[in-house]
Amino acid sequence: MQKFAFIIHPLDIRDVARKFAFTRYLPERVVESAFRLVPPMKVSHITGVKTPYGEAEGWFVACPLTARQMLELPEEFVLKRIIQAGRVAEKLGAGIVGLGAFTSVVGDAGITIAKNLNIAVTTGNSYTVATAIQGTKEAARLMGHDLRRAHIVVLGATGSIGSVCARILAREAGRMTLVARDKSKLEKTAARILYETGLAVSITSDVKKALRSAQVVIAVTSAVDTIIGPEDLLPGTVVCDVSRPRNVSRQVAEQRDDVLVIEGGVVEVPGEVNFNFNFGFPPRMAYACMSETMLLALEGRYEHFSLGRDITIEKVEEISALAQKHGFKLAGFRSFERAIHPREIEAIRARALVRLNAACSAG
């Protein structure tokens, strides 16, 4: 039996109530301050991960810091807490530990954490990229977009996930805009894409400007607050929101019934898997980063895999092949914690066409 662990943390203080129900009755600031002092802990035993090629069990280990705390507290303090969580995984017998949500963002994206543990470490970013691209391409197809003609926008294009998403999509894109804060990094990414694919991409730090003409968007920034609102998108736009916390405001779902927002990296895990913990998904569903950790464990590959800021296309293709071998697959589409039926996508597309035609007539 292969063994793995996955480090999770509350995205905001309301997530603490998933494990400690009494906290919902306390002021959020009090709970957040108190949990800053709580040491990492095992929160559940994961069972039933089984394919024709292997079987694994694992554990969720919690690092009780919110996303905001991970970005605002001293980096040294946060890394120390994550390393402590990794040592809990070691004691449980895991051969590899995955870094979930902001634990994979802090510092140097897992490298320092890996140096301080005696087991393998992965951020899961390679499989996150693979599923984000797969989901985006299929959603775009269903909404009637041809990637060769659509305007593709990548938010967070200089990050480890965003840059490789852009490089892979550029193979099929006709028009692309990269968005990030650091102009020099944007220029470097754009030059690399031009060299690899021949596509001359646009760059900007202005999110709102880029979104005005976008038809396909991959959002993968490390922003704590949402950056895409209902007023930012054209009718018919497809947005794949890979970020946690989300880059897309919930108001988009509430106010825009003519755009399709999907969650990146939602995977159906083979076997009768039981996570024994409610992280907001239906049975057998997991984030791609969790799934990468399981895949490496099933293969007995207790080695550092997706670490640092430079995720390679080769590793994205390698983990995609392992997923196909073991029967991990994209779990349809989800948006804001609920499944989207194909008929709903047809209705979104129909409303978008009506509004685009009306805008053209008015113009």
Automatic annotation (TrEMBL):
Instruction: List the Gene3D superfamilies.
Output: NAD(P)-binding Rossmann-like Domain
| SUPFAM superfamilies per the UniProt record, alphabetical | NAD(P)-binding Rossmann-fold domains
Indicate the segments forming the Quinate/shikimate 5-dehydrogenase/glutamyl-tRNA reductase domain, all copies: 140-257
InterPro entries assigned: NAD(P)-bd_dom_sf (IPR036291), Shikm_DH/Glu-tRNA_Rdtase (IPR006151)
Protein name (record): Shikimate dehydrogenase
